[in-house]
Structure formats: structure tokens, C-alpha cells
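lol so apparently i was supposed to do this last week
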Amino acid sequence: MRKIIIDTDPGQDDALAMLLAFGFPKELEVLGVTCVAGNVPLALTTRNALVICELAGRTDVPIFAGADRPLERDLVTAEEVHGKTGLDGPDWDEPTMALQPDHAVDWLVETLMAADDGEITLCPVGPLTNIAMALLREPGIAAKIAEIVLMGGGYFAGGNITPAAEFNSYVDPHAADIVYRSGIPLVAMPLDVTHEALMPKAWISSIGELGTEIGTKTEAMLSFYERFDVERYGDEGGPLHDPAVVAYLLKPELYSGKNVYVEIETSSELTMGATVVDWWGATRKEPNCTWMTKVDADGFFGLIYEALAVQ
Ligand code: RIB
Ligand code: CA
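anyway here it is w/ calcium ion bound
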């Protein structure tokens, strides 16, 4: 059983990351969900996290509101991808589950400092603002973190919000820079690997055919969410970014990559937020990240289906 904290900006793909984790309660203990501004403003990312926990019947999972803007830059959101609510697709009732009163960063620091060394895995799937703020507040949390498995960045696949940068690292490049310099074991699920698993339409339909509320709402979320990528990339399906983090924790054998040195661009406006990957060791700097580039797409989608079918 691995203890994890999901840091998120829901977002339909973030929702699937949460539902995937909830589908394997024997393997993953979700200690809490910390929300950050990203795909949509914080008020909506927190509301969406509550909605997803209620959908999964996991009102036992504490949810916290965190940073409402990046460390230094103005917030950039992605309603064009996720819709104005951030969770467009299904009709949602307003959540009855309440947010926890503590700020997410306070709870992260308190929870990590009370843990044993290497006890908790962090799973950020949005801008890294909360994680960076916790590290700035209490550097001692680093020893408590087994590893950070994050969705973000892009190198061979380029960027999706600018030609050079992926959304999560673009929105808060200064936070990403802090995390990549932290010395904490990092596993990155960048666009390089998430674009290797495009959602088959038949797979989305099979989820709807589960005939459950989770199945019906997930099909509606994914059908809405994939339209942006299909129109943009012209592919037969869209990438499902954030569940890659949880799938790796459940079945690491689905993924392969390389230990590399990665640095974040925080100066140039042209390449702001770019994850500069030293793939061939040109800098001779010690690797700080396992950068994933390959995935067993069938295994990935099969794992998500399995998680949804048991809830
Ligand atoms: O670039 C994809 C990432 O940005 C995903 O985490 C998606 O949810 C958005 O936050
Ligand atoms: Ca996200």
C-alpha cells in the first residue's frame, strides 16, 4: 500500500487520475487531495475535486484549497480545453461535501513533517505552485517524500500552450524550477509519453456502456474533453494526460524512459516554462528526473477501465 497525495487542478483528465486511484484502494491510500489554480480558477478546481470525490463515494478523502495563482506570474487558465467549469461534459449537482478549513500548503507541510522519511508519494497533476510553496515553507519535507510523480513538461513533443512549453510547467515555471532543483526523486509524465496513448472512441463508449453513474459521467467528460485535441491535433483521439501518474504507481512496467537532467526556463518569454531535457548528457550534470517517453497504451486504458468498472 502506497500513501499518496494528489495535487490537482481538475480538469477532466485530473478527474480520471483521481478515479483511477480510487479504483485501487488496496494499492493506493489517498491521504488527501490538494487543489491549485490551473485549468480553471481555484474556486472551480476545488469545487470539481469535491464533485469527483462525491461521484466516487469517497467523501472520506479530505480536500484542501491551495494557491489561487502562480508564485510570480499571472494565472493562465485553459477553459478552451476543459470548458468554463473545468469539468464540462456531464450535468453536475453542486457538491454537498465540504472543503477542509486548512490551506493546502499548511496541510501538506503538517502531514509530511508528521510522516516517516520516504513515507509519502506526491502526485502533482497541475501547476506545481502548492508543492513549491510547501518546499519553500519547510525544506525538511523533502526527506519525507518517497518520490514526486508528476504530469508536466514536454521535450520531444514540444509544448501545448506555447510551442516550447507544456501547460503545467508554463503556468508556474518558478514552482517547477524549485521542484526540479529539490533533489527529491522525480518521475515525469510529459507530453512525450501522454501523446503516445490517444483515447480510442470505442474505449470511451465502453465506459459509457458500464451503465453506472461513474461510467455515464466519465463518458460525457471524456467526449467533451477529447474534442479539443481531435480538432487541434487531427488525431483520432485525444491524450489523457494526468492518469499516467497514477497508472505508473499501479503498474510501472507500462512505462519506460530515461534518467536525465532537466532544467526549467524561467527567463525568456519565448520559451518560458520549457522543460529543457539533457537527453544526451551534454551538461554532464547529475540526472534529476526519470523522463518517461514510452507507454503500453492498451495496458493504460485497460487499467483505467478496470478502475471505473469496480466503482
Ligand atoms: O498539459 C496537460 C496538463 O495541463 C494536464 O495536467 C491538464 O489537466 C492541464 O492541467
Ligand atoms: Ca491537470
